[in-house]
Amino acid sequence: MNTPPCPSIDRHTHLEGSLAPEWIRRQAVTEGVAVPPGLEALWRGEALPFEGFIEAFLFSSGFLRNAEAVQAAVRAAVARLPLEEGSPRGLDLWVSPHFLVKFKRLLPLDTLWRGLDEGIQEAERAGVRVAVIIDAVNQLGPEHGHAVLDLVLPERPSWVVGFSTGGLERVPFRDWAPVFQRARLAGMRLAAHAGETGPGSNVRDAILEAGVERIVHGIRAARSPELVQLLAERRIPVDICPTSNRALVADPGDHPLPGLLRAGVRCALGTDDPGLIPTTLPLEWQIARNMGLGTEELLALHRFALEDAWCFLPRHD
What we know:
317 residues; alpha/beta; TIM Barrel; eight-stranded parallel beta sheet; 8 strands; 15% strand; globular
């Protein structure tokens, strides 16, 4: 049986972490600002605590001040996809509009939407389908989550298909349940970063208490056979980002991707923040192959990338 090629669908990447390093360097020189040491360390492939990553994230995302920069970030994310002849190409893109528009006040919402729309149209002319998942910050709590929805829902673009939480996993998912329910009633799909900066039990709580239908990272859940069984039985897609996990997850041990796939969990690959932690989807695929995945596991990884991607869902009116 032939080994499948790298899938052409990046299941998890953040707009704010997608600007190309060379673009960031040029902009920093133009504006006369120094690149933070932590970001330089990430570009060299060094591991950082999550708090150090946040400093780099804030610096990079601080350049998203106009539609052209937003479009450049979308373009950079698309450029990291492989060019597989005849394969569907797609991108599930996480975006934090409240952070950019309200918290940092970098640009107006309509300018963010315009930059995204222009970037998405450019991608789709090149044959790449893009969906946007709105990201809220877990540690800021459910009031923040409602504020995110207040901002996004009144004039939600058709390509905004989902709602997620990210950041530090400090607020219980049961407290977030009303926010997720509101997003669901508005027709949005639900995801959560869980089991990355917090315990594996957060994966269970996100699914059972908040009704989340997709997990980002979730690697700490692999330590619990019960949680792995829950993910497999409920057919919960899990977005796996090996390079990011190696850089940001404290004491990750051996990566759990092979065990999750062999247990029937629907894993697929993403690049996460590839402008900060340099990677591409083909590189993530090669890392996965180097974990000792057999042909059956690689075929499953390839199949789940397409079957569970939100970029190919019908868009709302």
